[in-house]
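Run log, item B.
One chain of 293 residues. Sequence copied directly from the ordering sheet:
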Amino acid sequence: MSHVESELASQPACWRAAIELAAGSGPHLPRRGQRVAVVGCGTSWFMAMAYARLRETAGLGETDAFAASEYPAARDYDGIVAITRSGTTTEVLDLLRSLPPHVSGTVLTADPGSPAGSAVRDIIALPFADERSVVQTRFATAVLALLRANLGQDLAAAIADAEAVLAEPLPLDPARTEQITFVGRGWTVGLAHEAALKCREAAGFWAEAYPAMDYRHGPIAIAAPGRAVWALGDVPPGLAADVAGTGATFVHHPGRDPLAELVLAQRMAVALAVHRGLDPDAPRHLRRSVVLS
């Protein structure tokens, strides 16, 4: 079993630990009414997108998400939340070290002793979710589980759903699937982007991601037999029929927690890598952390 397979299978346990950690993390996370930016790179950026939408939708304050390199320094925020597994990513460190004194900073990381941990006052460490693999799975989802719990969400159903998807058959045959487009709505747009990234990272596989409502504004042109559209969360009326009309396969599991659906997509990414004769623990051109000279 590869590292990534073992790590993705441990996610229900990691989410339970993250929920316990969330109980004492409130003082380190944004307060109601604060204007907040959430930043990260790659997978961490996509988790930031999900959390930002959830927090703002919950009425807790204006919340934006940015790739760390694209943070608009001219905007005035009350606080920054940075997600970084290694705590060594160059763009995140550059941003944290440049924050003005009046902007509070919180880092969620697997390594509290990393450089990111020393760049801010507030640190939330998830060492139990750290990973050996380059491809992130459990750290990212554990962070989002913690943040969802902090927002007051009950994740019991999400954990049960994740345990179920670890045992069920994949919805697509890796040998007969040429391309997948992942779609989401609201907070699950970030999850759709993350699912597509997993397929690209682990398997070098053609995968894209879009907001579900925007999918028909161009991207549907690539739908065809042998390809798939995979929805995470709610779908717009008529989308399934529109996809069926192209000959593509529509994958959707109504009622399942979207974070658990992401676990199923992670399994699909690994299966695609194995089918292609690739090592999902050694993705092409990637390192565990991007550290620029």
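Observations after the first pass:
- The longest strand covers residues 104-109.
- The CA atoms of residues 216 and 242 lie 8 Å apart.
Flagged for discussion on Thursday.
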